[in-house]
Amino acid sequence: MNRDVKWCVVILVALCLIGACGCRLWLATYTDTKAIPFLPVLQEPLYESMLTFWTFVIIFQVMIPLSLYVTIEMAKVGQVYHIGHDPALHDTETGRKAECRALNITEELGQVQYVFSDKTGTLTENKMLFRRCAVGGQDYSHMGDNENLLPCARLKEDLLIGTFRHRLQEFLIVLATCNTVVVNSQPHHDIMNSSGVIEEPQKNGIGPTRTTELSTNSFPTAASPPIPMSPKNGTIRTLSPVSPVISTANTFDDTSKFPFKLSRPKLLNVTSIPSLGIGLLGGRKQSPDGSKRRSPLNPVDMRNGDGELLPSPAIYEAESPDELALVHAARAYDVKLVKRTPRSAIVSFPDKSTLAFEILHVLPFDSNRKRMSVLLRHPHTREIVLYIKGADTTMLPLLSASDENTVAATNIRQYLQSYARQGLRTLVMARRTLSEQEYETWRQKHNEAELATENRERRVRDTYTSLESHLTLLGATGIEDKLQAGVAETMAALVGAGIVVWVLTGDKPETAVNVAYSARLFSPAMQLLQLQARSKSVAETLIRGYLESVRRESMNNAAHTQQQGSTNITHSTVMYNHDLAERDAHRIGSPWPRQRALVIDGKTLTVILDPRSDLTGPFLELTKTCSSVLACRTTPLQKAYIVRIVKKQLGMRTLAIGDGANDVSMIQTADVGVGISGQEGTQAVMAADFAISRFPMLSQLLLVHGHWCYDRLARMILYFFYKNATFVFLIFWFQLYCGFSGAVMMDQIYLMLYNLLFTSLPPLALGIYDRVATSHVLLSAPDLYKRGRLGLVYQTYSFWITIIDALYQSIVIFFITKAVYYDSTIDIWEFGTTIMTACIVVMLLYAAIETRSWTIIHIGAIMGSLGVFFGFCLFYNAVCVNCMGLPGSYWIMEKAVTRHMYWLTVILTSVLALMPRLIYKAVAVIAPGTMQIVSLNIAAKSGTQVRRQRISQRGEVNFIAGWSRSSQHATIRYILITLFS
């Protein structure tokens, strides 16, 4: 559009130059200017022509559509309103609606060529379910959801009498403590919603603003039997340490002592441990008679000393759903996280005893390390243990070199591969015991790194790395994250629309590939290209080999196409069937008909994206031959960088969609950012241009609203160019008969109100409410999205066709009107009023022809504009005798509307001016285009289905009536398809 606005400036300058030159030539023909009556004393013709040039700039300035930018913004506001109020984009479960956080890029939704999507929480529910774990060379399967997880009977048995029961026990402790889970008595609610609005609390006190604070004297609760208490000293029976936790290697039948002996409990007075700063008694008074009280861990009859009911059972809340699933898994085996503070974690055990660990340090998860760990101190032995969990690619290389770890790692790798093939998310758990001296040495280095002013992040990361080493393997977990309902259909629709879909995930390649097949990102018919290398040479060899293979296949296909060229005659009729649209859904503009999918991992991306490798270009060339790309083990920075190079080097319009903070950089880099308001907070939503609740809504957002917005704005902009150019050309033709003096044949106020009042409503109606096809048609035929993806509605030549059309119509309007009134007695104002009326009528009829779906708003805009024009002209010509000191058009319209010649001229010029457009529309009906064929085909199928359904409901008696009433429109459309196909 901006390019065409520049062309409008060029046309304006050209018209002004022609007018100035014409003025000079006209004046130069008169040698004695004094003999000309009413002509003022003139200077040199050259000087007068220069002044006239600027006069033409003023009267032709309508050619530059300044009001177009205002109209576009108003249309986009209307489009945004309808997107936000679309019931198809409303999540009934959460009550969330689609949000448009950027008001100026609605048309880009219809031009997306690449979609970059996160996986976890975007394609999946992000509701993690603990499904499998592997400990001591054994695999344990689980069923049920987190709240009702069914413990594995074999694992429970191994916990009691198994040869590696101590390893299982410590594995469960890792699940319960190595996290940032918070224990609350009531669910947490944010007082600020995703739109940034602070919600008011409800009157009953249970609303968005009511949360539970974890103070040091709050009493934790959990669903477990009461802990026996001594009536004399008020202490809580807990576990007795037998031997310290050691980091030496053990075999699977190890008999090393677990730090907590479950069979010999002793009394532990938690309040006597000043370093913890908390007590399980929570500051509540004991009854005077020393009788026993139920523990708040018991969900039944929980009362304090005053007989008041205590809070409900504890609720786990976590930033990561993975951690929540692990904590629930530990709780299923009665290893329960009772309470957590910044300095302690209290855990209860199967024998109804508790233990309070002192939290020394928490090493948070980051995308580079791909792991998190917690450093705990045992309250009795004062032993320091590091518990750690993370991705297998980063955890297994950190294991200590021992026979046990070697054997365990081999078994774990097999289970991890099996879990990944099942589409499960995998984590590896490990531990390390530190001596007091090792810990003090590390703590000093860590404190120095945190206080450093230079390279602080790198130094802190180095301290993490030094601590997270020489680990002892405990086990692995497999967590299920189900796909959202409708993801497969949405992914198939995007691929069918010709959009290249990239899924960027941090999961293992095996897990990601399994999910890709489930989501229909990959299909069995696709050729799967694996790109996994650890060096530049290997990566280059793979890329070059794939490209050469693709080139050979393309040459073979080209030769085959030439031989089968005659079979493509009927292609225009059948190409929009769903099967063919799906076969055509390869790379944009790609000559290769075979679909391919590419799988690449993060380490290979690191090699390829390095500018020094010179592999970025060949890699992008390879991706251009693929309809889908799956990038595994990627970091947030890699996601953003991939989007950036696709935008810059391929020149594609990109969309990024994600739900978490790690997707923010990718979302902000893309042309269009879409955030999903899910389980991972609102960071992605706040950074995005659009916000939806679930990934399947993306098809409605792109294929429907994107298509509508692009088509509406494209046709509205062309209409704006058309009506402005027609008006300017009409004024220009008059200059041929007024000596290029810069005079106009109509009142000056019409020049000002032409765009502001007379023709302002139809473009808005086109830009906000017109629909080239129904949502059902656009969703049923995703291939129609290529009209926006390839820019077929507004192409380079569209502007010049519009200008030529405007030029033709201006010639018809002006010269037919001149011929009709030739040698008559009407004055210049009535002549100009007739031309102005014909121009307005033609502009409004043109808008009516361009309207695809009529609504009351379209009718009101056109009829209202026509009524406003006549009403204003009649009123203005009646009251304004000599307004603002300018020559007026008093009573001109009142006289003109009484003349039959006026109406016949308006009708004749309107019909002849619009004749080419009407012929074009008639040809389009006889030989319908792709959009018409698809719409009629789908409408006929829908009509047939409706007819069959209603016939079955009404029975054979009402067959004729039911058929005629319910399917008359569909039948007519079906006949048209039969005739025109």
Automatic annotation (TrEMBL):
Start-end of Polar residues biased regions: 209-221
Cofactor(s) annotated in UniProt: Mg(2+)
Residue stretches making up the P-type ATPase C-terminal domain: 685-924
Active-site residues (renumbered): D118 (4-aspartylphosphate intermediate)
Binding site for Mg(2+): D118, T120, D659, D663
Location (main, coarse): membrane
Membrane topology listed for this record: Multi-pass membrane protein
Gene Ontology molecular function: any one: ATP binding
EC number(s) per entry: 7.6.2.1
Alphabetic keyword roster: ATP-binding, Endoplasmic reticulum, Magnesium, Membrane, Metal-binding, Nucleotide-binding, Translocase, Transmembrane, Transmembrane helix
Species per Swiss-Prot/TrEMBL record: Harpegnathos saltator (Jerdon's jumping ant)
Record protein name field: Phospholipid-transporting ATPase
Principal EC category: translocase
Binding site for ATP: D118, K119, T120, E323, F365, K389, R425, T505, G506, D507, R633, K639, N662, D663
GO cellular component: endoplasmic reticulum membrane; plasma membrane
PANTHER family reported in the protein's UniProt record: PHOSPHOLIPID-TRANSPORTING ATPASE, PROBABLE PHOSPHOLIPID-TRANSPORTING ATPASE
Location(s), subcellular: Endomembrane system; Endoplasmic reticulum membrane; Membrane
UniProt keyword annotation of Translocase present: yes
SUPFAM superfamilies: Calcium ATPase, transmembrane domain M (SSF81665), HAD-like (SSF56784), Metal cation-transporting ATPase, ATP-binding domain N (SSF81660)
